[in-house]
Automatic annotation (TrEMBL):
PANTHER family: 8-OXO-DGTP DIPHOSPHATASE-RELATED, GDP-MANNOSE MANNOSYL HYDROLASE. GO terms for molecular function: hydrolase activity. SUPFAM superfamilies: Nudix. This is NUDIX hydrolase. Keywords: Hydrolase. Gene3D superfamilies: Nucleoside Triphosphate Pyrophosphohydrolase. Signal peptide: none annotated. Its cofactor is Mg(2+). It comes from Paenibacillus lautus. InterPro entries: Nudix_hydrolase, NUDIX_hydrolase-like_dom_sf, NUDIX_hydrolase_CS, NUDIX_hydrolase_dom. Belongs to the Nudix hydrolase family.
Length: 148
């Protein structure tokens, strides 16, 4: 039995009622995602989130709040998914180089929160964002419990 566990961080950046998304294949139903990725050996969660955000979007950010901790045990290896609220410190949105990415990012955009469903996100997730992340800072069980 394997004891591997993948840890992934996801960042939510909201400015002027708009949320930052990256165009990247998530599933057959969804071609847009929140910025984020795998935590590398020796990184803190915060370091991984800041690195992923800058790599994927060109923005320098800081973590302002832990939103949710979720499981995705059906992934291989199992996945621990941690979502943070971020604040932009500097930078302009740009496309990443994608030079080492097997799942390249095709676009980086700020979209109105009300348009999340039009970008393949669940109504449940859109409602959570619109309500200001109720129960933030908590363990939510399965990732689908927050609509992701």
């Amino acid at each position: 039995m394997s004891s591997l566990l993948q840890v992934r961080v996801t960042g939510i950046l909201i400015e002027d009622e708009r949320i930052l998304l990256v165009k990247q294949s998530v599933s057959s139903e969804r071609g847009w995602s929140l910025p984020g990725g795998r935590v590398e050996q020796g990184e803190t969660l915060e370091e991984a989130m800041i690195r992923e955000m800058e790599e994927e979007t060109g923005l320098v950010t800081k973590v302002t709040k832990l939103l949710y901790l979720c499981d995705k045990p059906d992934s291989s290896p199992s996945l621990l998914h941690i979502t943070f609220l971020l604040e932009r410190l500097e930078g302009e949105i740009r496309l990443p180089t994608n030079e080492f990415d097997l799942n390249p990012i095709g676009d980086v955009v700020m979209v109105p929160i009300a348009d999340l469903a039009n970008h393949g996100f669940s109504e449940k997730f859109m409602t959570i964002v619109q309500r200001g992340f109720p129960e933030s800072g908590s363990y939510q069980g399965l990732k689908r419990n927050i609509g992701l």
